[in-house]
Amino acid sequence: AIAADASSAASAAAAGPSVASAAIAERYHRMEGLAQLAEALQTNTTLTELGLEECALDDQCGKLFLDTAVEANRTLEVLSLQGNYCLEDTASMAIKDLVMGGLCVRELNVAKTNAMIGERAILALQQGTRLESLDVSGCGLGDEALRDARGCLAANPRSALRHLCFADNTVGRFGLEAVPQLLREAPSRRLASLDLSRVTCFAEWPDTGAEFLASLGTALRADTVLEVLRLAGNGLLDGPTRQLVKHVNHNQTLLVLDLRHNHLTVEVLRMFRGERLRLE
Q1: What is the C-alpha separation between 24 and 29, in angstroms, rounded?
Q2: Burial bucket for residue 214 (CB in 10 Å: 0-12, 13-18, 19+)
Q3: 137-169: b or e for each residue (b if 16 or more CB lie within 10 Å)?
Q4: Phi/psi class of residue 229: alpha, beta or left (left: φ > 0; alpha: ψ in -120 to 50)?
Q5: Could you give the C-alpha distances from 253 to 9, 162, 231, 257, 276, in angstroms and in order?
Q6: What CA–CA distance (Å, rounded) separates 182 from 267?
Q7: pTM across the whole model
Q8: Which residues contact 157 (CB under 8 A, 6 or more apart)?
């Protein structure tokens, strides 16, 4: 169901068993409407997916919704707050609480919010046991956040995270060092999908690119879980990428390798020959 505003979504959620998904996009919502939606979700037993994207939610509205709805609802599994960049400290703490102890949310999208929201969601991974997918793309994050993701996942043996999207942030050598460690360390090795698209430009830092791809290749050679790796738009060059080829071709689980929008020739791309591998 696509609702015009929060009040309409509240009516849909209260309507009963026919509504499993609701999306509200690019709308400004009054507090009254979000309060109605939160109240409806407390008793709704069918809604599993909810999108509140680009809705200009402020801190107060965000906390109201997260505290009174998400923590009480026992069916909502997929929640998207993408593009709500006005969320601040109070809402970020509510998101952290959701990741750490939410009742049933398995997929959380906070892409294009802000660094505070993204960082709090990542730090909560150290204790969260339900979340399977986290999207913090375009949150203005940097090296420290990626290293925090590695550290939090490595410290949490009960983590259920399988999909991490860190695309469209800004990462340098310090942050990139954490990626191979993220793939090598248990329990982080549960990751099935990692998106690092458009996080750096190796064309400007070829030595860094060579070091990263060599280390990444070694980690991929031993990895038996990762299925999707996205490195699109990172200025990859032919020379360093050749170091990645032999390791990827040895890997038995990688299904998708996204190398689009890099500086790679057809000759190098054709060197990837994994039986199950699909290049994008």
Answers
A1: 10
A2: middle
A3: bbbbbbbebbbbbbbbbbebeebebbbbbbbbb
A4: beta
A5: 41, 14, 17, 11, 8
A6: 30
A7: 0.90
A8: 186, 187
* Residue located via tokens 């049933």: 104
Give average pLDDT by consecutive 10-residue segment, the chain, 280 residues: 48 52 54 73 82 84 77 84 92 91 88 97 94 97 97 92 97 94 76 96 90 94 92 96 92 95 96 89
DSSP string, the chain: -B-SSHHHHHHHHHH-TT--EEEEES----HHHHHHHHHHHHH-SS--EEEEES----HHHHHHHIIIIITT-SS--EEE-TT-TT--HHHHHHHHHHHHH-SS--EEE-TTS-HHHHHHHHHGGGT-SS--EEE-TTS---HHHHHHHHHHHHT-TT----EEE-TTS---HHHHTHHHHHHHSTTGGG--EEE-TTS--TTT-HHHHHHHHHHHHHHHHH-SS--EEE-TTS--BHHHHHHHHHHHHH-SS--EEE-TTSB--HHHHTT---SS-EE-
Tell me, letter by letter, the H, E, C secondary structure of 154-204.
HCCCCCCCCEEECCCCCCCHHHHCHHHHHHHCCCHHHCCEEECCCCCCCCC
